[in-house]
Amino acid sequence: MSRFGELGGKLNRGEVAINFVKRRKLWYLITAVMLVISLGGLLGKGLYMGVEFQGGAVFTTPPTTISVEEARTEAQESSGSDARVQRLGNDSLRITVTGLDSETSNKTREALAGKLGLETEQLDAELVGPSWGEQMTQKALTGMVIFLVLVTVYLSIAFEWRMALAALLALLHDLLITVGVYALVGFEVTPGTVVGVLTILGYSLYDTVVVFDKVNENTSRLGKDTRFTFAELANRGLNATVVRSVNTSIVALLPVAALLFIGAGLLGGGMLKDIALSLFVGLAAGTYSSIMIATPLVVDLKKTDAGAKAHDRRVLTKRAKAAKGQDVDQDDSEETGGATALSDDNPDDSLTDDADEAPAAAGAGGRTGRSQGRGRAAGRRR
């Protein structure tokens, strides 16, 4: 078994732990920085919408040795509009010019063919109107809204509303990061991009639900298992699934990367590259959010839950008694004079740096209490 596989087994059995929940403020800070950069790119540079959304013309040359830069310059001079050029797999060029109508498209075709040393008939031209892209965008947004509503209802029923809210916030994070990368790098937004973004929603949600299922299984023992606080139980659930999430993401990213870097390089640009590009960025963002954001958000949202507070008070009371050498009864009362375990001032909320410290302390406390109890009982018999 590989070291990574051994680590996964130990994480699943609770022998070691990575304190994701304890370090959630660090994850929040990293996330906030990424979101600010993404929003800055989106508001500052904006998205470069493809010809399907703006309208224009697409010209395709026969195989040629003309460079991409030369073709772009000639296209912009011929049309007076912005132009994008892609070299396809057969060494032909795909020249996209936005803002052209039927008349200006014909004039641009003739002028561009002359500057490139081609006959007008050799330069294929396709006129694209903006209505198709607008209709597709509207349908995509409608489908997204329906999807999010159904997801919220399902997660609220299957788990609870806090997990539903955390999952939606993680999805929003994935969308903003993906859109922000497109804005910052200047990638063209095409119908393929829209398809890829919609696919991201499903994958990101799947990964988050897998984590939440284990977290929900662990935290369902609140009030019964008084060895761990809610935050610790949630972190143990996250640790049990983190290797699975990483493995699933790697397996998903490898074929997407092959499509993006190998397939697009051999076949040129087009729908395949557009879908693969949005998928690659979104899958990476979704893996991060399902591990670093979703479960820590649930822990913070649970701060208002009376049941979780009562459970944590009971856990901390037992630990305090064990530390003082007092008897620890399984049915100890929930009274405590300190803050709850889910408060920011309580060190138990952050989990321990040693993976086994919390359970070991609980076990040691129980053994101490029992041994002292036996000692007092023996003294009374003497």
Automatic annotation (TrEMBL):
Gene3D superfamilies: Multidrug efflux transporter AcrB transmembrane domain. It is a multi-pass membrane protein. Residues 345-357 have a biased composition (Acidic residues). One of its GO terms (molecular function) is protein-transporting ATPase activity. It is found in: Cell membrane. The keyword Transmembrane applies. Residues 117-303 form the Protein export membrane protein SecD/SecF C-terminal domain. InterPro entries: SecD/SecF_arch_bac, SecD/SecF_bac, SecD_SecF_C, SecD_SecF_C_bact, SecF_bac. The chain crosses the membrane at residues 26-44, 140-159, 166-187, 193-212, 250-269, 275-299. It comes from the Bacteria. Residues 310-382 are annotated as: Disordered. GO terms for biological process: intracellular protein transmembrane transport; protein targeting; protein transport by the Sec complex. Keywords: Cell membrane, Membrane, Protein transport, Translocation, Transmembrane, Transmembrane helix, Transport. One of its GO terms (cellular component) is plasma membrane. Forms a complex with SecD. Part of the essential Sec protein translocation apparatus which comprises SecA, SecYEG and auxiliary proteins SecDF. Other proteins may also be involved. Belongs to the SecD/SecF family. SecF subfamily. Part of the Sec protein translocase complex. Interacts with the SecYEG preprotein conducting channel. SecDF uses the proton motive force (PMF) to complete protein translocation after the ATP-dependent function of SecA. PANTHER family: PROTEIN TRANSLOCASE SUBUNIT SECF, PROTEIN-EXPORT MEMBRANE PROTEIN SEC. This is Protein-export membrane protein SecF. It comes from Streptomyces alkaliterrae.
